[in-house]
Q: What sequence folds into this?
């Protein structure tokens, strides 16, 4: 029985690599597999022989993936969008907290030492260098575990084929947006009276406050809707 459980565990691990086969589908396939094995064992076959025959009857991973792709189209897109929203909200929450802590630390040092240089250095270290070091460390630790487990979905294939183009677009975006913000602030300040610019700054600050609360809130509402819709799709499939 121990060998049979190990064989089934390896079989399930192979199915888990197929993006189009959901966890509930794998559980259902496992039930069919075990029923087939039990029937074949009752006919006098060994557990290993029964497993091989029952697994072959169910189908290979590629055939099952093609079959379930037609059935789980809606659930798959909801699943992908759900994880995209989770990633965006998680990154936004982490970056917001990290930026606040970096700013608080540099402000405390500025008030304590009255040194703009040391405060600026601490801010750069906390907000840029430390996250980069931590990211590289996490990437190194998880690299071996993630090798060979990348699912070749259409999106992942698109990313692999156009990685250089996507990387260039992202780099340009991250470079141009801050420069555009600096230019916009400079042009606005140069063409406005001081009192009007102060009122404008207050409006911008209020907008940033509202957007900083409203956008994550809308993301959480979307995530909850996706969870409910995902459960409905799983119940109907």
A:
């Amino acid at each position: 029985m121990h060998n049979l459980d190990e064989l089934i565990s390896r079989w399930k691990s192979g199915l888990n690599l197929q993006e189009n086969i959901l966890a509930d589908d794998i559980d259902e396939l496992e039930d069919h597999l075990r029923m087939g094995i039990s029937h074949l064992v009752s006919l006098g076959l060994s557990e290993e022989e029964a497993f091989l025959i029952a697994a072959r009857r169910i189908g290979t991973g590629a055939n099952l993936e093609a079959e379930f792709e037609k059935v789980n189209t809606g659930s798959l897109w909801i699943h992908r969008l759900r994880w995209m929203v989770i990633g965006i909200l998680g990154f936004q929450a982490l970056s917001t907290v990290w930026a606040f802590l970096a700013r608080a630390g540099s402000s405390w040092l500025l008030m304590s030492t009255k040194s703009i240089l040391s405060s600026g250095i601490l801010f750069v270290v906390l907000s840029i260098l430390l996250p980069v070091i931590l990211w590289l460390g996490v990437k190194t630790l998880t690299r071996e575990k993630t090798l060979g487990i990348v699912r070749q979905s259409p999106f992942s294939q698109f990313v692999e084929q156009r990685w250089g183009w996507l990387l260039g677009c992202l780099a340009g975006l991250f470079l141009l947006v801050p420069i555009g913000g600096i230019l916009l602030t400079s042009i606005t300040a140069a063409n406005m009276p001081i009192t009007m610019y102060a009122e404008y700054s207050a409006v911008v600050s209020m907008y940033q406050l509202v957007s900083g609360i409203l956008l994550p809130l809308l993301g959480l509402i979307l995530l909850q809707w996706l969870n409910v819709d995902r459960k409905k799709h799983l119940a109907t499939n």
Summary: DSSP finds nine helices and no strands in the chain. The longest helix spans residues 194-236. The two ends are 32 Å apart (CA to CA). Residues 73-149+192-236 form one domain.
